[in-house]
Amino acid sequence: MIEGEPREGMKILVVEDDQDIQKVLVDQLALDGYEAKGVSTGKEAMEAFDSFKPDLVILDLTLPDIDGLIICQHLRKLSDIPIIILSARESLADKIRGLDLGADDYMTKPFEFLELAARIKACIRRRDKTTRTEQVIKAGDITIYPEQRTVTARGEHVNLTRKEFELLLTLVENCNKVVKREELCNRLWKDKEVYPWSRAIDVHIRRLRQKIEDNPSSPRLIITHSGVGYRFRLDGEEP
Prior knowledge:
It is built from eight helices and twelve strands. By secondary structure, the chain is an alpha/beta fold.
């Protein structure tokens, strides 16, 4: 298959309140080999995002219930899939705002479908290239992007300090194995400024739990092995 061409099962969510435009887009996308679904409101868009699980979103900004820019911001927090804004709002401010909030492209109406189709393929090519080159580590609800040094938990971005990131990365890389306190100290403090018997590791573990655990006081991910170290546990495994 040519890079950037429609892949079998690739889903596109069309968020457009004009029924005529929505139907044209859904029909044309289907002819191009995509599985397309159309919705008319922001509420329907967020519900369809969860149930339909699209690979790309075409998003109008002028919706009857929620401004499309708010939808764009919300979807970007949940996922990094491509978002193409397709709107009659053509001011530079709207374009800049849309791109700043995470849209991958911005087209104004009236539009030519052939141009939109080309932009969809361009987004797919960029996504495919990123997917091939970017190392991603997944452990349950946690996703780590080592090159970008970013982390998401249950689809939400998590702000971690440098040492918190190194601590989580070390635990996940050794998933289901107990990592000794000495190993963690060596990873986080290579200059030996902190030693295994200090409480520094415990402080960082506590802060990390507060950021990634559903209930930090009863952790299900980072398990303490008293006197030894810590272990990152996947759901469904023995505590």
